[in-house]
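Lay summary. Proteins are chains of building blocks that fold into shapes, and those shapes determine what they do. In this project we predict the shape from the chain. Here is one chain we studied, written as its sequence of building blocks.
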Amino acid sequence: MQDRRRIYRQPCDLEGRIYVLNSDDASNECKIIDLSTHGAFIRPASDVQLPPKFDLTIGNGNASHSCRLARISGDGFGIEFLDPVRDEIEKALIEAAFREELLFDYIAGISRDKSLMAPRLRRAVAAMMEIIEQRNSMTWHQAADGGERTQVRARSAA
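And here is the predicted shape, written in a compact code that computers can read:
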């Protein structure tokens, strides 16, 4: 199978823990087989069904990473990290849309926690993340005759 990833995944042998919101199980152990800044391939220690979104801790770390289930394989799951996307969007918004306001706040001596820009930034990031989540719920389908590709909303796993 051809590898179409944007970023090379480094083979590894790390422990991880899967956390599912509103689940009876506190967490599930897993083995991280390969890893990149955008995703990983994991093998749960037990037979577990993963929801479309969950959190993952890597190694002995306490920081959890928001993940999206990208691919189901016979021996594990391909996942995509959602946090890097949020960080990139936040940085882009700060650079592009809020640069002048940040400069004015700095010159005026207004701290970040008192700035009126912070709530606006959070709303803008939330709106961008909603757009990305909508995009992630779409899939592309090639016409049977090899014609035009169309985008359709993916069916929910419920």
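What the prediction tells us: The chain has two domains: 10-81, 83-136.
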